[in-house]
Amino acid sequence: MAHWSKTDAFAYFDVVMENRRWSWSGVSGDGATVVLVLWQDRIERRKGRYSYADDKELDAEWRRRPGHSARIRHLKHALDNLGGRFRTVIAKAEDTRASPRKIASCFPQSEVFWQLDSFDEESGAFTAHVLD
């Protein structure tokens, strides 16, 4: 597997991050693509499909970070304009128990679309699954 930087993985989808350091999501210039970073170890297979839930670690510190408020905007854009569909950069954590986590490696999930199942605009919590 090729080595990707987070910046290059986002660029694969023609998305420029607002900030290389704190961005965990983005929207393409034409608004047609939303990209989120998903942690590889949190992707689960449930009921025959891959799913993701980001509601476990939305603590007060994360909620104050600019990357969190931007991700809420981007998820809302996906819901309002793209039927809840988004693309992903899959990230492997250096240490899955660390807080905050750091990316050891990542890559664009090029042939897969994800679909929001639920989204709480206030907290930023969401669940999603891979579209067939």
Describe this structure in words.
This protein has 132 residues and is α+β, with helices and mostly antiparallel strands. It is built from three helices and eight strands, in the order H-E-E-E-E-H-H-E-E-E-E.
Summarize the structure.
The protein has 132 residues and is of the alpha+beta class.
Q: What structural class do you assign from the helix and strand content?
A: alpha+beta
What percent of the residues sit in helical stretches (DSSP H or I)? Answer: 10-25%
Overall outline: globular
On the 0 to 100 scale, the average pLDDT is 91
Summed up, the helix count is 3
Features:
8 strands; globular; eight-stranded mixed sheet; 3 helices; single chain; alpha+beta
Task: Set out the fold topology.
Blueprint: H1 6-12, E1 25-27, E2 34-39, E3 44-46, E4 49-54, H2 60-64, H3 66-81, E5 85-93, E6 103-108, E7 114-119, E8 126-130
Parallel strand pairs: 2-5
Antiparallel strand pairs: 1-2, 3-4, 4-8, 5-6, 5-7, 7-8
